[in-house]
Amino acid sequence: MWDHVTVKFSCERCGQTLHSDVATSLLDYPDTIAFARTHGVDVRETAIWELPLVTNDETTVTAEPFRVRVTYPLDGDELTFVVDEEFTIVDVSGESDRYDT
């Protein structure tokens, strides 16, 4: 379908835009932070290219309805997000159920 899906962030104040892949865009989400932390990874202190949970081949896209699924694998556990065309999280499943955020 699509080779690469990006998220576009726009600053209403200055007009600057930033494009990011979906997996990278979800790194600041509380469930991602908690999931990584329980596996000894601090996503806020680790360089993005050193994060073991960000991979380009973890995104699956469906057209109708438009959905992007991102799965973060760590140490045999998985955390999966599904987002829609507005980058709204429509589902979170997996190991996040065990973590306090």
Automatic annotation (TrEMBL):
Descriptive protein name: DUF7351 domain-containing protein
Top-level taxon: Archaea
Organism ancestry: Archaea, Methanobacteriati, Methanobacteriota, Stenosarchaea group, Halobacteria
InterPro entries named in the record: DUF7351
Entry-linked Pfam families: DUF7351 (PF24042)
Species per Swiss-Prot/TrEMBL record: Halogranum amylolyticum
Domain (DUF7351): residue spans on this chain: 4-89
